[in-house]
Every structure is written in structure tokens, then in C-alpha cells.
Amino acid sequence: MSIDEIFDKALSGARIDAAEAKCLLTFSGNGKDGFAPGPGLTRLGMAADKICAAMHPEIYRTYIIDRNINYTNVCVSKCKFCAFFKPPGDKDGYVLTKDELFKKIEETIELGGTQILMQGGMHPNLDFSYYTDLLKSIKDKFKIHIHAFSPPEITHFAELNGNSISETIKELIDAGLDSIPGGGAEILTDRCRDETSPGKCSADEWLNVMREAHNLGLRTTATMMFGHVETMEERIEHLEKIRQLQDETGGFTAFIPWTFQPLNTAINVEPLGGFEYLKMVALSRIYLDNVKNIQASWVTQGAKIGQIAMRFGANDMGSTMIEENVVRSAGVSYRMDKKEIVSLIEDMGFTAKQRDLYYNAI
Questions:
Q1: Spatial strand order in the sheet of 145-148
Q2: % of the chain at pLDDT higher than 70
Q3: Would you say 208 and 169 are in contact if contact means Cβ atoms under 8 Å apart?
Q4: Assigned domain for 14 exists
Q5: pTM score, two decimals?
Q6: What angle do CA 206, 210, 211 make, to 5 degrees?
Q7: Rounded to whole angstroms, how far apart are CA atoms 252 and 289?
């Protein structure tokens, strides 16, 4: 099939396959001459923009005000791509006290936040009761959406308490968990995971956590961190696995691709720039025809590339990120407040609307 036929197929609403996705990535170039979007990248972006407009005919684009709270940085996984974790016993390891956590939540609410994204390391010495008690304590004190505990953490919790994944998620829901973030996906192939994060859950285990969560009525997001050891084919395989699970459950609210940041990590590669990032945003919009929302990742690429992503298939600018620690540990520290996010959206010709996790305007 020719490039023209693949674009026509995608724009007609038909589903493209992995081989066709590879053709689109190859056609759009490799960006080695810097950020100079040629006709291939431009055409890919235009196609993604048209598909996004068809899925989101509304005149607004969205953002959320929330805070990333890392309750601990102690982790036994030792992922090669992570600059944030500390091994058990490290002098810089920490576990937040409830008072510290509550102060962060209070500040979030004062700034108009409606959600906290709470994640941490796989701490070997915290009992499962620590996590359920933490959730209950937050819900007793605050009216806020708790988007917490990625699949690797939940797999770790299940091992701690000797229960199944489903039973573990049920207990977390009963304690106050509202939704699950898509962290820990990285690239959903075991070759990549064995090389970069052998202490973390497998690709099938990640997918199974999400499947069980969806079957219990919990909504989740899905992510992809690319630009480390994966191949082009593995990026597409990752998208295919997300699409297949979404066909099965319909439980993903959004997909968020972002680029790996290598500084202070054990993986020595050149960081990907805006060219490769925009390619994957556009392909994600075209390929994931059953995931309604694509989020721009200004946290790793900066405000202007995040803004351009709004014309490469993204319909959401993500979070104001009142606090973010993991990417900052890898040497990247972009910051934006509500005023700037609104301005970036409006400069692209849209109205800006604050949303909740379910993409309801608030």
C-alpha cells in the first residue's frame, strides 16, 4: 500500500495496522537535521490533526490542575532509566509523613487543583496497610480525586499482601482509590523491560493490572516512554497492545507519550527532540482510534513543543504540574502555571477548559 493510500485509509476512519504505521514513521523522516519539519512530518501532523478534529469537534481544548506527589523515593527495582529512586538504606531516601502529604494537598486545592497523582518507589519495608491507610486518611480529610499507584506498584502490593491483583485493587478502591495512572509502561515489550527494568513487572503484568482495574470499573490512563533502547517496531507494538486492551475493556481515558530523559540515568543515549516527539504524538492519534484523548507532554519537551502537539493530534495539554520530581531528577525542569497553559491553548485558536480525569469540563 502506498503512503497516499495509508493516509486515505486513516482519514476515512479505517484502522491502520502495524506495517502501515511503520510506513508512516519512515515516511515522516528521522529529524537528524534538527527540528526542521519537512513535508513528511508536516503531512503526518496534518492527518493527525484532522482525525483529532473529527474526534473532538468542540471548540475547546483541555488541561487539568493537579500535583504529582511522590510519597517515597525508595525503590528496589533499580530501573536504568530512573534518576529519581534511592536504594533502601540510602541517606537521601524518604517516606513522606502524613503531615507533609496533607500540606501538599492543601496547597493543591488552594491553587484550584482537583486531583493528586500519587506514585512512589517499590519500597520493601512498607506493609500494604500503609497504602490503604494513606488513602483513607486523605479521603477523611479532603475532597479530592486520587489518581494513584501505577501497575508496577500494584503488582508489588499484591506480592506484599499475598492477594491477587483483583483483590488488591478492590482493597485500594474501598480505601479511596479513584483511578490508576499509566506509569511504568515504558515500552510494553519484555525485551526492552529485561534490558532496562528487570526488577519491574512484565509487559503482560502491566496490561493485566489495567485489565483488572477496568473490569472493576476503574478508569486508567496509558503512557509510553520512548527514546531509550526500543526499536521503531517496538514502539508500534506498544501502541498495538494498548489498542487491543482498549478494544477489550474501553477503560483508558487517555494516552500520554513522552520522551526519555537520559541525564543522571544509567542509559547513555542522546535525548530525542521535538521532531521525534511530534511524530509519535501524531502516530498515536492515528493508531489509537479507540482512545479518545491524547495528552501533550510539555514536561519533557517544553511549552512550545507541547503547544505544537495540539496540532499534531493532541487535544489535551495535561497538567499544570504544581510539583514534578521524576523528570526533574533527569535534568529537565519545565514549569507552567494555569495562566500560561490557558494562553498556549488560546494562541492555537481554541478555548481553554479545565477538566477532571474523565475529561468533564469543570
A1: 66-70, 115-119, 145-148, 179-180, 219-226, 252-259, 293-294
A2: 91
A3: no
A4: no
A5: 0.92
A6: 110
A7: 12
Which amino acid belongs to residue 151? P
Say which residues have a Cβ less than 8 Å from residue 295's Cβ, sequence separation at least 6.
Answer: 221, 254, 255, 256, 314, 316, 317, 318
Q: What cell was used for 224?
A: 509510553
User: Is the Cα dihedral 49, 10, 5, 277 positive or negative?
Assistant: positive
Is there a contact between 167 and 160 (Cβ–Cβ < 8 Å)? no
**Contact predicate 196/267, CB 8 Å:** yes
- Which strands, in side-by-side order, build the sheet including 60-64? 316-319, 60-64, 351-354
Whether 45 is in a domain gets the answer no
CA distance 294 to 66: 18
First to last CA, the chain: 44
Q: Pull the grid cell for residue 306.
A: 507541547
CA nearest neighbour of 344 among 318, 321, 313, 362 = 318
Q: Total domain count for the chain?
A: 1
Contact between 148 and 119 under an 8 Å Cβ cutoff? The reply is: yes
Q: Which residue has the cell 494513606?
A: 134
Question: By the 8 A CB rule, do 257 and 281 touch?
Answer: yes
Q: Is 306 within the bounds of a domain?
A: yes
> Each residue of 269-316: pLDDT tens digit?
888 889 999 999 999 999 999 999 999 988 888 889 999 999 999 999
Question: What cell numbers appear for 19 in the block?
Answer: 506495517
Closest Cα partner for 205 from 165, 239, 149?
165
Query: Which residue range is the domain that position 180 belongs to?
Result: 57-354
Domain of 333: which CATH number?
Answer: 3.20.20.70
Q: Is 25 inside a domain boundary? A: no
In angstroms, the Cα distances linking 216 to 115, 134, 149, 219, 251 are 21, 21, 16, 9, 10
